[in-house]
């Protein structure tokens, strides 16, 4: 009989307990529980935006912090992000209907010649977790692909990733082309990947180098907030 006591019935928890439980479930990467919790809060009359920010983003913030501090590792974060995606899938159409405020929009992709995507995927998921809309171009992106995406998606941020020292310089090609076309200043450009560093980011003209996904989210938030505070920027 003791087993029955361990079974948590989500629908029996009050709102506060449920949100706390969703934090735990996100942390443990329990997708079905997150989907169920999301539905319960909506059924109780929560606004989709509040479910997103308080339950999902709140929970991912804890995950991001522990990832940054080395308590959690990539596989666990991917599991948590995947659970978050389950909740997001339910909320997305509802958020679109209610015209919920969003943090901003990001186009992200690994550069030409490079087929690594774990770091990029992590950034995408963490950014979505923070309330950004993310358009992921995948791997091996030529400059044309980035420019095309900037034109069609009109994001606030362009994120580029590279894991090979040989593909790093291609980031400069993209930024230089943006400069030539006079559109460099229209976007916040963030770069990341194991072989990069701050000096490299500065040298190629990026706005910032982000050493991991948690830093990328913080940096993106700061730049977007700064941009919104400038009149006509």
UniProtKB/TrEMBL annotation:
<feature type="domain" description="B12-binding N-terminal">
    <location>
        <begin position="9"/>
        <end position="103"/>
    </location>
</feature>
<dbReference type="Pfam" id="PF02607">
    <property type="entry name" value="B12-binding_2"/>
</dbReference>
<dbReference type="GO" id="GO:0005829">
    <property type="term" value="C:cytosol"/>
</dbReference>
<dbReference type="GO" id="GO:0050667">
    <property type="term" value="P:homocysteine metabolic process"/>
</dbReference>
<dbReference type="GO" id="GO:0032259">
    <property type="term" value="P:methylation"/>
</dbReference>
<dbReference type="InterPro" id="IPR050554">
    <property type="entry name" value="Met_Synthase/Corrinoid"/>
</dbReference>
<comment type="similarity">
    <text>Belongs to the methylamine corrinoid protein family.</text>
</comment>
<keyword id="KW-0808">Transferase</keyword>
<dbReference type="GO" id="GO:0031419">
    <property type="term" value="F:cobalamin binding"/>
</dbReference>
<dbReference type="InterPro" id="IPR003759">
    <property type="entry name" value="Cbl-bd_cap"/>
</dbReference>
<feature type="domain" description="B12-binding">
    <location>
        <begin position="103"/>
        <end position="233"/>
    </location>
</feature>
<dbReference type="GO" id="GO:0046872">
    <property type="term" value="F:metal ion binding"/>
</dbReference>
<keyword id="KW-0170">Cobalt</keyword>
<keyword id="KW-0479">Metal-binding</keyword>
<protein>
    <submittedName>
        <fullName>5-methyltetrahydrofolate--homocysteine methyltransferase</fullName>
    </submittedName>
</protein>
<dbReference type="Pfam" id="PF02310">
    <property type="entry name" value="B12-binding"/>
</dbReference>
<dbReference type="InterPro" id="IPR036724">
    <property type="entry name" value="Cobalamin-bd_sf"/>
</dbReference>
<dbReference type="InterPro" id="IPR006158">
    <property type="entry name" value="Cobalamin-bd"/>
</dbReference>
<dbReference type="GO" id="GO:0008705">
    <property type="term" value="F:methionine synthase activity"/>
</dbReference>
<keyword id="KW-0489">Methyltransferase</keyword>
<dbReference type="InterPro" id="IPR036594">
    <property type="entry name" value="Meth_synthase_dom"/>
</dbReference>
<dbReference type="GO" id="GO:0046653">
    <property type="term" value="P:tetrahydrofolate metabolic process"/>
</dbReference>
């Amino acid at each position: 009989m003791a087993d029955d006591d361990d079974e948590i019935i989500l629908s029996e928890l009050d709102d506060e307990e449920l949100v706390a439980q969703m934090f735990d479930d996100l942390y443990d990467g329990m997708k079905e529980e997150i989907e169920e919790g999301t539905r319960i809060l909506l059924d109780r009359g929560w606004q989709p935006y509040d479910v997103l920010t308080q339950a999902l983003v709140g929970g991912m913030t804890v995950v991001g912090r522990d990832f940054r501090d080395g308590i959690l590792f990539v596989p666990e974060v991917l599991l948590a992000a995947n659970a978050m995606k389950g909740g997001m899938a339910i909320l997305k159409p509802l958020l679109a209907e209610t015209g919920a405020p969003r943090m901003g929009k990001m186009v992200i992709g690994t550069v030409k010649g490079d087929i690594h995507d774990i770091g990029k995927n992590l950034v995408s998921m963490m950014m979505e977790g923070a309330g950004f809309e993310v358009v992921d171009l995948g791997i091996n992106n030529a400059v044309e692909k980035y420019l095309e995406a900037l034109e069609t998606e009109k994001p606030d941020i362009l994120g580029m990733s590279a894991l090979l020292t040989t593909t790093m310089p291609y980031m400069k090609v993209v930024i230089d082309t943006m400069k030539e076309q006079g559109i460099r200043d229209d976007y916040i450009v963030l770069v990341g990947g194991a072989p990069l560093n701050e000096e490299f980011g500065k040298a190629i003209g990026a706005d910032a180098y982000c050493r991991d996904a948690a830093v990328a989210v913080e940096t993106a938030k700061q730049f977007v907030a700064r941009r919104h505070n400038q009149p006509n920027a």
